[in-house]
Amino acid sequence: MSVVSKSPEETLASVVVVDYGLGNLRSVTRGLERAGADVEITDDPEAFAAADGVVLPGVGAFREGVENADPIREDLLEVVERGQPLFGICLGMQMLLTSSEEGETDGDAAVKGLDLVPGTNVRFSDGQKVPHMGWNELEVAREHPLVEGIDGEYAYFVHSYYAVPERDEAAVATTDYEREFPSIVANDEGTVFGTQFHPEKSGETGLQILRNFVEICAEER
Amino acid sequence: MTLTKRIIPCIDVDLDEDGNPAVYTGVHFEDLKYTGDPVEMAKAYNESGADEFVFLDITASADGRETMLDVVNRVADEVFIPLTVGGGIRTTEDIKETLRAGADKVSITTGALERPELINEGAKAFGSQCIVISVDAKRRYDEGGEHYVEVDGESCWFECTKKGGREGTGIDVLEWAAEAESRGAGELFVNSIDKDGTKDGYDLPLTEAVCDVVDTPVIASSGCGSPDDMYDVFTKAGADAGLAASIFHFDEYSIEETKAHLDERGVPVRR
């Protein structure tokens, strides 16, 4: 059962939480601090470059997220080019993909995701209650440092769309909600990854994922 | 596995004689009993496996509100599970302030009945996922309703009430639930004035009727006296989450015990 862990004595890595005007950044910040990170909340690209890792949070709609993040789009892509870890949470994860049914996918009006994990996001339509809200189980599908110690544990989800990556290998963990969907995705290099659920709201399992992330960042130092 | 049923302890926050926050548990929304410090209680519940918390500011005063935000703040720094906060929320500014303090969702009762646009505004500004509409339903056996259900051989409708059931609104709960959903509510929190504090089980006909008219998750509240009541509200009424206060606060049953009971009987829970 969940036990609240204490913050480590000293910070292990510096992490930027990208502030692009969406959502409450307080919980994710506290969670990362508890996991041993020194956290800065900012939209300053210079701070992205200086950090050991970058978190792209987000709640709300795909179009709004992409539009709000547009001024820093190139800067986020540069984070990845430099090989720094980029961690998308919830809408932030969906934005790592190419497109979403929630915004236009074709033509001039197409809403373009970051295309770091090729694929799209589609709405649940198998007769489930939407949004998928609550605690559901994580089944680890392949090795990745982010999922150390969390196979079979539960995480807290709130979402109506789910990722459909082009390559099956992009799914690091899956979850079952009347259908199986990727609850954690990553790119081939393993430096870009995201969780559909909220680790900062997933109790001890969530904190474990945040600790794994901070360790990935510490190795990048 | 699949999505689990959520067990949610509800913590009523009031001020004690010295103006400090304290947890109270009501019976029929009256006769409040002191039960403890809210932050300590939240930590203990988190360790015993609570899936979420609901905090209700029952002071409905400016001092109470201030204290509540401070409690939310401290709980959010300690406990990494979803927090819903309700009590006296009437404007988008109130919503913003509550979310900023660390709440993940706000629960709105009277504020939305008096000005339904608040739901649309809140959903647009902060997302449906954080707008929980709460109803205090009361059974009526008169001709004033729109949807009637059979309860113990008698036909009744459910009225939305204000002020803990003391004031009627004439609004049918089932109409209001559907309207709240269409305006952008992300979850419905269903209280029963008839069952509150009785510990003889949730209002199953009410919960089932609400589950039938909406697709958004329904949190059943009021009347839980045992893990069996939780079992009934999940399996017979179709609730997505069960809220309880006194059975947990007074250690009659722990959350772990409740989950073990449900698990044994085939209800999916997070353990």
TrEMBL record, chain A:
Per its record, the protein catalyses:
L-glutamine + H2O = L-glutamate + NH4(+); 5-[(5-phospho-1-deoxy-D-ribulos-1-ylimino)methylamino]-1-(5-phospho-beta-D-ribosyl)imidazole-4-carboxamide + L-glutamine = D-erythro-1-(imidazol-4-yl)glycerol 3-phosphate + 5-amino-1-(5-phospho-beta-D-ribosyl)imidazole-4-carboxamide + L-glutamate + H(+)
What's the protein here called? Imidazole glycerol phosphate synthase subunit HisH
Q: Does the keyword Amino-acid biosynthesis apply?
A: yes
Q: Which PROSITE patterns match?
A: GATASE_TYPE_1
Q: HAMAP family from the entry?
A: HisH (MF_00278)
Q: Where is the Glutamine amidotransferase domain?
A: 16-214
Question: What is annotated as the active site?
Answer: 90 (nucleophile), 198, 200
Q: Which GO BP terms sit in this record?
A: L-histidine biosynthetic process
Where on the tree of life does the source sit, at the highest rank? Archaea
Q: Which UniProt keywords apply?
A: Amino-acid biosynthesis, Cytoplasm, Glutamine amidotransferase, Histidine biosynthesis, Hydrolase, Lyase
Q: In the UniProt record, does the keyword Lyase occur?
A: yes
Q: Which species does the entry assign this protein to?
A: Salinadaptatus halalkaliphilus
Protein's gene: hisH
A GO CC term attached to the entry: cytoplasm
Q: What is its EC number?
A: 4.3.2.10, 3.5.1.2
Q: Which NCBIfam families match?
A: IMP_synth_hisH
Q: How does it assemble?
A: Heterodimer of HisH and HisF.
Q: Which Pfam families match?
A: GATase
- Name the PANTHER family for this protein: IMIDAZOLE GLYCEROL PHOSPHATE SYNTHASE SUBUNIT HISH (PTHR42701)
The pathway where this protein functions is:
Amino-acid biosynthesis; L-histidine biosynthesis; L-histidine from 5-phospho-alpha-D-ribose 1-diphosphate: step 5/9
Where in the cell does this protein reside? Answer: Cytoplasm
Region forming the signal peptide: none
Q: What does this protein do?
A: IGPS catalyzes the conversion of PRFAR and glutamine to IGP, AICAR and glutamate. The HisH subunit catalyzes the hydrolysis of glutamine to glutamate and ammonia as part of the synthesis of IGP and AICAR. The resulting ammonia molecule is channeled to the active site of HisF.
Cited CDD domains:
GATase1_IGP_Synthase
MF term (GO), any: glutaminase activity
Automatic annotation (TrEMBL), chain B:
| Entry's localization field | Cytoplasm
Catalysis: reaction(s): 5-[(5-phospho-1-deoxy-D-ribulos-1-ylimino)methylamino]-1-(5-phospho-beta-D-ribosyl)imidazole-4-carboxamide + L-glutamine = D-erythro-1-(imidazol-4-yl)glycerol 3-phosphate + 5-amino-1-(5-phospho-beta-D-ribosyl)imidazole-4-carboxamide + L-glutamate + H(+)
The record, for InterPro entries, names:
Aldolase_TIM, His_biosynth, HisF, IGPS_HisA/HisF, RibuloseP-bd_barrel
The cellular component terms of Gene Ontology attached to this UniProt record, alphabetical and capped at eight, are: cytoplasm
Q: Which residues form the active site?
A: 12, 136
Give a yes or no for keyword Cytoplasm in this entry.
yes
Q: GO MF annotations for this entry?
A: imidazoleglycerol-phosphate synthase activity; lyase activity
- What is this enzyme's EC? 4.3.2.10
Q: Keywords for this entry?
A: Amino-acid biosynthesis, Cytoplasm, Histidine biosynthesis, Lyase
Q: In which pathway does it act?
A: Amino-acid biosynthesis; L-histidine biosynthesis; L-histidine from 5-phospho-alpha-D-ribose 1-diphosphate: step 5/9
Task: Please name the GO terms of the biological process aspect recorded for this protein, alphabetically.
Answer: L-histidine biosynthetic process
Gene3D superfamilies recorded: Aldolase class I (3.20.20.70)
Q: NCBIfam families given for it?
A: hisF (TIGR00735)
Record-stated family: Belongs to the HisA/HisF family.
Q: How does it assemble?
A: Heterodimer of HisH and HisF.
Role according to the record:
IGPS catalyzes the conversion of PRFAR and glutamine to IGP, AICAR and glutamate. The HisF subunit catalyzes the cyclization activity that produces IGP and AICAR from PRFAR using the ammonia provided by the HisH subunit.
Which protein is depicted? Imidazole glycerol phosphate synthase subunit HisF
